[in-house]
Amino acid sequence: MPNISQSSLITQLQTIINGLSVTSETKERLITLAKSAQMIGANASTITTQLQTLISTLPPSSALNDVALLVVSLALITDNRVLTVPAIVDLPSTAAAGSVYFVESEGYPYIRRINGTWVMIETNSQGAASYPTALTWGNNTDGRLGDNTTTSKSSPVFVSGGFTDWTQISAGGYATIAVRANGTAWAWGSNANGQLGMGTASTSRLSPVSVVGGFTDWVQVSAGQNHGLGLRSNGTVWSWGQNGQGQIGDGLSDPISIRSSPVSVVGGFTDWVQVTTGSSAFHSIGLRANGTLWGWGRNTNGQLGDNTNISKSSPVSVVGGFTDWVQVSAGGAHSIGVRANGTAWAWGLGSSGRLGDGTSSSSNTLSPVSVVGGFTDWVQVSAGGAHSIGVRANGTAWAWGYNGSGQLGTNNTTGTSSPVSVVGGFMDWVQLDAGLSHNIGVRSNGTAWAWGTNIYGQLGDNTSVSKSSPVSVVGGFTDWVQVSAGSIHTAALRS
């Protein structure tokens, strides 16, 4: 299949949207969602759900159908993971597993039905289907790199097992979790707190083991400090691992409690579209299809955003009354999210300026505050240990918060409480992820870059020297499609 031009699709979208008989506000919202679909590489389901919600309020038209197809195509192009495609694309729900569907117009992607879900199919130069492979680097204590050793690596190594159909990966505090194209979830690394979800809290695993439960419809996973989260295609969220702060979300909170196999997050919701927990986090945040955010787990610093600092063992709504959240990220003691109007908001511990609200107070902010700068084109944000990073629609990367190891990428170690541009002059970032004190990012040319702490080789530049500006991950690869920064290791997928 020939390469698909995202810029061409955006141009088509803008032409069609401008010709719609809808309000200017609706046109602006549609274009914002389209640009978000182009830029966010790990949240296609979020974008398409928001699009579906908006379109359902408008009079039906063939032009509107064209908009839907184009936006979902963009989302699939930049997503590369198992995804339940919304009904607006009108994909045949009765299609047998293994069937292929070609989205109508020339240049749109092929997608294949696997175990009840539709999966984006990339192709190589010979036209054969090609799925991503998983690579890792950095600290390897407890086998979190999954290469069947416990030796740390300062350059990328392949995850063992021979699988070449990974669709999404998440690096946590002591373990890594990933999803394969058949909808199964796998994990490796420390299992002291049951964070591998294999049914027992036991010794570490140096190579991938299957998350128990028999589910074949996982679409997204997120690895925390000592627990894991997973989203299934039926819109339910499941969790496993350590539950001392209520981060499992099962309605119980016991300091010595461990859930070694997936349990359903309480509340009865079946419309979750994204879940997140940070590599240094003891809390979880989820986004529902109605655009609301919900949190559970540790809340000592107000990181749940419910206007209290009391930890919760079941989901509580993030205050503010907003129903247009499109993406969210959980950090060590703070959280940050993006609304459909392109503004970014943060809450939780404010020290070191990690909230980006222009202050560096060590006090807690218990409800969302706007990230300063006046930008209304944020498309993705990520919360680290004590810093935050984000991508704007123009492809530039920005950072704020603690900078002791150069994790802001400003070529110095001076912290800031408001967004500053990451050096390098790049205007083609498509995804960023913040770890404890390092970051990893992918550019539109398929190269991966990292900066910040590098004691364990987590930057992947074949050294152990920290960097205050982006350095290229070694290997010369130009086909990185998704990256994830853990506490002290990194995981990524190549196409």
Structure description:
- With 495 residues, the protein is mainly β.
- Helices cover 12% and strands 37% of the residues.
- It has 4 helices and 34 strands.
- It has helices at residues 6-18, 24-39, 44-55, 62-77; strands at residues 82-83, 100-102, 110-114, 117-120, 122-123, 129-130, 133-138, 153-158, 166-171, 175-180, 185-189, 205-210, 218-223, 227-232, 237-242, 258-264, 272-276, 283-288, 293-297, 312-317, 325-330, 334-339, 344-349, 364-370, 378-383, 387-392, 397-401, 416-421, 429-434, 438-443, 448-452, 467-472, 480-485, 489-494.
- Helix 1 runs antiparallel to helix 4 (62-77) and helix 3 packs antiparallel against helix 4.
- The longest helix is centred in the first third of the chain and has 16 residues, at 24-39.
- The model is unreliable at 1-6, 77-89, 97-110, 112-117 and 119-130 (pLDDT under 50).
In short:
By secondary structure, the chain is mainly β. It has four helices and 34 strands.
The CATH H-level superfamily of the largest domain is: Regulator of chromosome condensation 1/beta-lactamase-inhibitor protein II
Main structural class: mainly beta
The averaged pLDDT comes out at 83
Number of helices, where a helix is a run of at least 4 consecutive DSSP H or I residues: 4
Low-confidence region ranges: 1-6, 77-89, 97-110, 112-117, 119-130
